[in-house]
Design goal:
This protein is an alpha+beta fold and 105 residues long. The chain has two helices and eight strands, in the order ββαββββββα. It has helices spanning 25-32, 91-100, and strands at 3-9, 17-22, 36-41, 46-51, 61-65, 68-71, 74-80, 83-85. Strands 1, 2, 3, 4, 7 and 8 form a six-stranded antiparallel β-sheet that branches. Strands 5-6 form a two-stranded antiparallel ribbon. Strand 3 and strand 4 (46-51) form a beta hairpin. The longest helix is centred in the C-terminal third of the chain and has 10 residues, at 91-100. The radius of gyration is 13 Å and the shape is globular. The termini are far apart.
Amino acid sequence: MNKIRAIVKRPNELIGHELSINNALKTFQNIVGGYIEVVPIDGSGAVMICNEEGKLLGLPVNFQMPNDIIVGTVIVVGTSGAEFTDCPLTLDDWAGVLNEWGDAI
């Protein structure tokens, strides 16, 4: 199984933590707790993987984006075409993104 470096942020974490995870749909679904939705992080080369039905399921708020509220656990990874790859962001980069969005750290 191919592993990739990811940042995982749970609702109760300020920034999140780095993990080496299996690059497999089932792994992503297990971490976010259901069907996945992919949300691009503008200008970063990274995407967030979150629970597609998180708001309907009443998952706890994780953080605020400029035009949305993200709920439940989020996985941040990179992409190459249709494939997920190692996260191009460091934890400091990710903290900066959250700070830009107004999620004060």
